Amino acid sequence: MLTKKDLPLDGQRALVTGANSGIGAAIARSLAMAGAKVVVNYVVNEQAALTLIREIEAEGGQAIAVHADVSQEDQVQNMFQQMFDAWGSIDILVNNAGIQRDAAFLDMSLEQWDQVMNVNLTGQFLCAREAAREFVRRGVIPEISCAAGKIICISSVHEVIPWAGHVNYAASKGGVMLFMKSIAQELAHLKIRVNGIAPGAIKTPINKSAWETQEAEQQLLKLIPYERVGEPSDIGRATVWLASDDSDYVTGTSLFVDGGMTLYPGFREGG
Ligand code: BGC
Question: How confident is the model at residue 271 (pLDDT cuts 50, 70, 90)?
């Protein structure tokens, strides 16, 4: 029989942005298996969101799909309203939606720059603000969690590793890191915890070209001391911990889940 300890998020309500593919889908699954009800946000490919919901339900979990482009204020507010209408409130926000629009710097268009900033950074602002307003309105419910709410910002190792050819992406993730820490500082006294997860190379559609052939994977593994490419479930498990009361004294931190990618592997023999 499953106990409360097996279900650390029992009775909690979570919203995961960009949850119909890749890391977001794994996070939604992990939260649901830990006992949370999950809003699966998507912007394209409704079918994938509905399939994920069926899978979660088949495992005994609860989830609903809500469409919204996280870079649009009215759509974000509408999404939160739909969640509140369905389940009354929110306990966990996972700001996951993110995109890459890669280009050499000299060729990068303003559109490529703006698209990445709007989704990866402005999207996190708009969703975190709605969640935080609700956490403050509702306050702590001790039977549910020690905290009034938890916000988890999915960033990247590129919040600290510069990335040529991807400057819009790296700049957005560096921004996510200081956004996360600044709101953690501002909201801690309200019993709101805000943390980040910085994934390394995880097998998802966003970086398929970096792992889909054996040659590409061998190249990639040179950057990963732990000698395996990450799986989306690696991030799902870390998210459950940061969302649960097991991490109650943790706020304003970036948890790197990267197989050691940020350990400067080139220095193992060099320097
Ligand atoms: C990027 C991936 C990349 C990984 C490690 C992630 O944030 O989205 O494309 O493989 O960082 O470089």
Answer: confident
Does some domain include residue 188?
A: yes
Strand partners, 15: 39, 93
C-alpha distance across the termini of the chain, in Å: 54
Residue among 169, 226, 249, 264 flagged as catalytic: 169
Q: Give residue 5's pLDDT.
A: 58
CATH number of residue 28's parent domain: 3.40.50.720
Q: Closest ligand 1 atom to the C-alpha of 155?
A: 7
42 is known as an active-site residue? no
Helix (H, G, I), strand (E, B) or coil at 91: coil
Domain that holds residue 170: 13-204+232-258
- Residues with beta carbon inside 6 Å of ligand 1? 100, 156-158, 200-201, 206-207, 210
Residue 252 has pLDDT above 60, yes or no: yes
* Environment class of 13 (CB within 10 Å of its CB; exposed 0-12, middle 13-18, buried 19+): buried
What's the alpha-carbon Rg for the chain, to the nearest Å?
18
Ligand 1 pocket: which of 202, 221, 226, 254 to mutate (most atoms within 8 A of CB): 202
Question: In the structure encoding, which two tokens stand for residue 177, read together?
Answer: 């890191």
The best mutation among 157, 208, 220, 235 to test binding of ligand 1, ranked by most ligand atoms within 8 Å of the C-beta, falls on 157
Percent of the chain with pLDDT over 70: 98
pTM for this structure?
0.97
Distance CA 102, CA 240 (A): 31
pLDDT tens for each residue of 134-173: 999 999 999 999 999 999 999 999 999 999 999 999 999 9
Number of structural domains the chain divides into? 1
